[in-house]
Amino acid sequence: MDKEWIKDKIFDKETDLFTDSKGEYENCSFLNCNFNKADLSDNEFNDCIFERCDLSLASVQKAAFRNVVFRDCKLMGLHFEACNPFNLAFRFERSILDHSSFFQVKMKDTIFDGCQLREADFTEADLSQAVFAQCDLAGARFDQTILEKADLRSAFHYTIDPSINRLKKARLSVPGVLALLAPLGIDIDY
Q: What is the pLDDT of residues 44-66, one digit of tens each?
């Protein structure tokens, strides 16, 4: 099936945009759209912005996200590992990504700004030089995760075991850095 090419278009309050066709969206804006449980599979998004959209539990099988910004969005339960990995690049601002999975996703330099990532799975993800600015990482899973040069100085509620994750030159601050000792069962009074 050929994809329709859509460029420089604004979609506002859409709900069933992806039901009948697949598209290649370039420099498009999606505003106030409800794509909850929608099938975004095989669509391509290049230099697009999603603002105040709900994409929770959407299917993103082989969807391409290249230089895409999610601002004030709900992206709960998404399986980003199912996305097309070629030139995958996002920025997340003030978005809710609870229970989302980034299993083995290469996300170097990704910015998470003011996001809620409770119970997110970053197992075996490459988050080199990623920034977690003012992010809630309660219950987030880090296992064999590459966090080299990542910035977690203002992130909170995370627990990262340094014996099973790569943290070389990661930027942390007190009291967050104390979360690195939690897997060791050490009680710290401060």
A: 999 999 999 999 999 999 999 99
For residue 185, being part of any structural domain is answered with yes
pLDDT digits (tens, 9 = 90+) for 79-114: 999 999 999 999 999 999 999 999 999 999 999 999
Q: Select from 67, 93, 119 the last residue of a domain.
A: 93
pTM above 0.85?
yes
> Which of the listed residues 64, 93, 122 is the one where a domain comes to its end?
93
How many CB atoms within 10 Å of residue 154?
15
Q: In what order do the strands lie in the sheet with 131-133?
A: 10-12, 29-31, 49-51, 68-71, 90-93, 111-113, 131-133
Same domain, 110 and 161: yes
